[in-house]
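Thread amino acids onto this structure.
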């Protein structure tokens, strides 16, 4: 559920329905799972594909993949050590900058960055999930980080 809510802009109820559909698909195709590979990567790939299918079915723009406000708050809080109340405004500004910079990334970069830096998947797992070579996963993450830095600089987010 967290992955669906983190990577889409659909309502909670729609996310629950999509999650139910994902579980049904996993149940139907469990016999096709190859035990030589990571089960979590296989499940993640099914979820990823069904999210894209849902976008296509509902004619939504797949570039709207984003993190929710709580995720941005957690990212900013992990980057900062501002516990005093007078830093609340600054923390809010940083959160806005990070949210804007990540949402400005192209979908491939955004997805790879979220998988690596927020979900903590290895490059091998990202490779399995996105069905790309490991070196491509690494390249996407590195390019995403570079683009994220440039986006933050354009936004004048120098904290």
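Threaded sequence (159 positions):
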């Amino acid at each position: 559920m967290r992955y669906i809510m983190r990577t889409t802009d659909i309502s909670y109820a729609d996310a629950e329905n999509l999650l139910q559909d994902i579980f049904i698909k996993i149940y139907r195709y469990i016999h096709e799972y190859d035990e030589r590979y990571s089960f979590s990567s296989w499940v993640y790939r099914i979820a990823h594909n069904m999210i894209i299918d849902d976008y296509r079915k509902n004619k939504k723009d797949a570039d709207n993949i984003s993190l929710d406000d709580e995720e941005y708050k957690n990212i900013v809080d992990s980057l900062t050590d501002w516990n005093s109340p007078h830093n609340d405004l600054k923390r809010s500004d940083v959160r806005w900058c990070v949210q804007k910079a990540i949402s400005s990334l192209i979908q491939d970069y955004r997805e790879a960055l979220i998988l690596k830096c927020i979900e903590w998947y290895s490059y091998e797992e990202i490779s399995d999930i996105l069905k790309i070579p490991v070196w491509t996963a690494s390249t996407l993450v590195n390019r995403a980080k570079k683009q994220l830095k440039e986006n933050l600089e354009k936004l004048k987010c120098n904290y």
